[in-house]
User: Fold this.
Amino acid sequence: MKQIIAYMFGAGLLVNAGLFVPQALKIFKTKSAKDVSLMTFGGFNLLQFIGILHGYLQGDPYLLVGMIASFIACGAVTTLGILYRKQ
Assistant:
């Protein structure tokens, strides 16, 4: 049972990562980030980085992989937001 919950948790984190993708695509396609809160996404990135460290230190591969995926997807939104905020 514990393994099933761990797997579901990891899958949930991957879904969470997927939720950032539409925002990144929207910014990329429109070349505009006027509606993106960089403070919010920066905060998400910080929390995900802490989650990555925690997953690594706890030896939890589900948490680690899920948080890395979220960090990359959210990082794409943050990076694109910074790049296109000035335009």
In short: The two ends are 51 Å apart (CA to CA). Residues 2-85 form a domain with the Monooxygenase fold (CATH 1.20.1280.290). Residues 15 and 70 are 9 Å apart (CA to CA).
